[in-house]
What does this fold into?
Amino acid sequence: MPKAKKKLRVLFLCTANSCRSQIAEGWARHLIAGAVEPYSAGTRPGTLDPRAVRVMAEAGIDISGRRAKGMDEFKDVAFDYVVTLCDPAAEQCPRFPGRTKVVHRSFEDPPRLARDAKSEEEALTHYRRIRDEIRDFVSRLPEGLPRAQEGRRS
It folds into this structure.
C-alpha cells in the first residue's frame, strides 16, 4: 500500500486575523484541502470581519464559525510555510524553528479600502475583489510556494 503524502502545514498570517488570513484559510480548506493543512492567525488578533464572512458565503464557503487567533495558539505546530498576507505582518513575523519557510504575498486591506465607500454594496466590491485575488493565489498552492528545503527566511 503506497504511503500517503504528508500534507503541508501552512499558516496564513495577517495583522488582525479578521479578514485576509481568514479568507485564505477558507479558500485553502475548500480548494486544496488534500494538499495542505491550513491555519490562520494574526500578529495582533481582532475579531472576525462580518463582511469577510458575507463575501465568502457568496462564494459558497462558510467561515462564520471561525474566530481571530494569535500566533501563540500555534506555538507547538511545526509549519512548513508561513504566508504573510500584509506588509505589517511580514515586518512583525517572528522567526520559526526548523525548516519553516516564510513567504510574503501582500494583499490590500478590504476594511481600509471600504472605509470611504458610499454604500454597503460599494464596500463589498472591495472585499469581493480581494477575496478573488486571494482565491487565485491559494488555488496555485502548494506548487506556487518555494520549496521548504530552500531554507527559512533570514
Observations:
- Residues 120-139 form the longest helix (20 residues).
- The beta strands are 8-14, 36-42, 81-84, 101-104.
- The mean pLDDT is 91.
- DSSP finds five helices and four strands in the chain.
